[in-house]
Amino acid sequence: MGEKILEVHNLTTRFATERGEVTAVQGISFHVDRGEILGLVGESGCGKSVTSQSILRLYDERRDVRYEGEIRFEGRNLLALPEKKMRSVRGGEIAMVFQDSLSSLDPLFTCADQIMESILIHRKISRAKARAEAVEMLRLVGIPDPEKRADQYPHELSGGMRQRVMIACALSCRPKLLIADEPTTALDVTIQAQIMELIRDLNEKLNMGVILITHDLAVVSEMCTRVAVMYLGQIVEEADVVTLFEHPLHPYTQGLLRSIPTVKGGKREELSVIEGTVPPLDRIPEGCRFRPRCPNASPLCSGQMPGLKPVGEGHRVRCFLCGGEEKEARS
Amino acid sequence: MLNYIFRRLLALIPVLLIVSLTIFLLIHLVPGDPAAAMLGENATQEQIDALHTAMGLDLPLPLQYLRWMGRLLRGDLGTSYFMKGTVNEILRDHMVPTLQQTAVAVAFAALVGVPLGMIAAVHRGRAADRLISGFSTVGVSMPSFLMGLGLVLLFSVKLRLLPSSGYKEIAVAGWRTHMRYMLLPGIALGFIEMGLIIRMTRSAVLEILSADYMRMARSKGVSRVRLFLKHALKNALIGILTVVGLSFISCLGGAAVTETIFNIPGIGKLTLNAVMRRDYEVVQAVVLVVSLLNVVCTLILDLFFAMIDPRIRLQ
Ligand SMILES: Nc1ncnc2c1ncn2[C@@H]1O[C@H](COP(=O)(O)OP(=O)(O)OP(=O)(O)O)[C@@H](O)[C@H]1O
Ligand SMILES: [Mg+2]
Fold first, then answer.
1. Which domains are assigned to chain B?
2. Which residues contact B78 (CB under 8 A, 6 or more apart)?
């Protein structure tokens, strides 16, 4: 195992809303090794974005949000860091790429301006040097004619280009960890593949850890070393990518995997979807959160919330039934 | 950018044509006869007809319009039927106090409204926001004559700080005295606009504070202060300046009320009198000049917006 650069312990994120406090992320723990790509998957609304934005503490702490737990990054607890120190982590050591590149780039500034912004914040260099670096970053992320593109505005670029510009922004200060929150959902398939290729390439070149958030399991299987599956603010299963795809234990993971279209022996398999929908945060079920949608649910599941139990080497699962079976098999 | 300016100027020509035609028709199709009004009740029909001929009012309307336009293009707004001097002179004399009053009103509205709107947005949902939003509602719903009377009662009658009415030219009385006379009418005129500016600024800034690019900038390590000054303000500027520009136009229109209360010899009072007497030339000229100011104001704003927003330049 490599050196852990990020360790999240029992992170809980609560939002104050008009209808009272909601808990969007409930006691999640995971880690990222240096240079690895961790996949974070789950249906829409299960708290992937909240998790990633909690790591950088992007929510307004004076008003909206309350964090609990610990986020250890290279030994420091980010949740205890004063705002000023936190600012040097943001963009400098942990950088983020968002889903929608059109709305995430400021429409009134050129690409170079937006890349230079991070460079000038985190590094003591002149504007001219920063600009040269910005152009260099554009070249690195594969933008043709970077000198010209640098002076263009976001609306003048295509979606794929903009996503590359955003990645250039994120990588301009050589962060140790990149959080990519569904970096390709707004793009078409070929561009999607190119962006993923780029992320993997840079991950190898810069030995940078990556948290890749997506709900595309095919992407996960190609890109990631390990995967954490989230459901309704909790991690329900975590394993290395091979184990997760070959021996998924949690019924939710199994459901997700079954919903990937596959063609076997020339015959298209029937696509199955998980019954029901993710409930809203103010109606979280008692006991196991997945119980109402679980095909294997038993009375045991409604009484108590199952813990996230280790079932094998680096494999953890939050389910009474699968954990139990494993134990029985062992004893 | 030059290209954009040129296109904008070109687009003005049809606008101005339509404006002039509308003004002309409105005024000439409304019943009432300036000749009859001028000659008084005892005038005979012959006298009236003779005056019509002299004033060119017997010509067919299209011809009257063309003659008017012809003069306009030479910069000649005509002569008043009732007042001494050319309309150009009359207008210039009356325009100055109105513009001065409007300038004070807009300056007041913007200098108070924009910061308050920003404070409200930043403190959304808290006491400061509620206080400011309440204040803006009062501002928006306060008619300017009430506001004017209230100000006079407080600052002139009770505190005896400022004069209650009148107008002093800068050239004659100096800046300080001029401003002492302009302050109350300016504030009365600008109060509603201040309310509107608070509201618009608040919602413009609120929208931008929750924009994705603000979150992105924060994730790059930009400090809150810089985030606000660099990204939020620049993006909110278009919304804010649009309201400020609009408030300039509506202050010009609303000046008649405060000019009457504070007895200022401005364009509002001039228009009221001219309309009563069917002084076509003056009314036409006033409406035309105000519309022109409107068009110019919009043009300046648009050019400014094109300067800050690259997306506008493209269109
Ligand atoms: N600022 C907020 N205030 C209150 N609730 C929030 C806030 N942000 C997110 N939530 C809630 O937290 C839950 C998780 O949202 P999140 O955006 O993390 O989902 P996600 O897994 O990223 O989904 P998607 O795949 O659609 O991006 C949702 O129910 C959402 O309504
Ligand atoms: Mg999300």
1. 2-88 (no CATH), 91-308 (1.10.3720.10)
2. B68, B71, B86, B87, B281, B284, B285
